[in-house]
Amino acid sequence: DSMKITENNTGLTLNVCVNYGGRWEILEAAKRCRDIPLEELTEQKFASLLPLADSGDVDLFIRTSGEERISNFMLWQLAYAELYFTKILWPDFTENEFLNALNWYSYRERRFGKTSEQIQQEAKKE
Hints:
Elements: H1 2-5, H2 22-32, H3 43-48, E1 60-63, E2 82-85, H4 95-106, H5 116-125
Parallel strand pairs: 1-2
């Protein structure tokens, strides 16, 4: 039912990975780049070789169950993700809890490896 309801969705991607591991995914990408000269290998090129390359980078990672770890999930794609942890179990995760996570996310300063000062300086230039 969920797939049918969301088949035309273009604004949000939900990844639920079963029997998946981030280390496995990085290893698979490494195997795929054996024909690429090292001087031509970039982060973008490597990312394109990941089995889940079409998923893109994660903006918001929501971890249910009270565990505060990523558990080998999308290691490459989580590099600059905002991590939201809740004690609520997945079967009990409601629309209201999802809205709480989005609200929390809306107050985060997305820096992508930069400092707040660097972000402010870039904003002044624009």
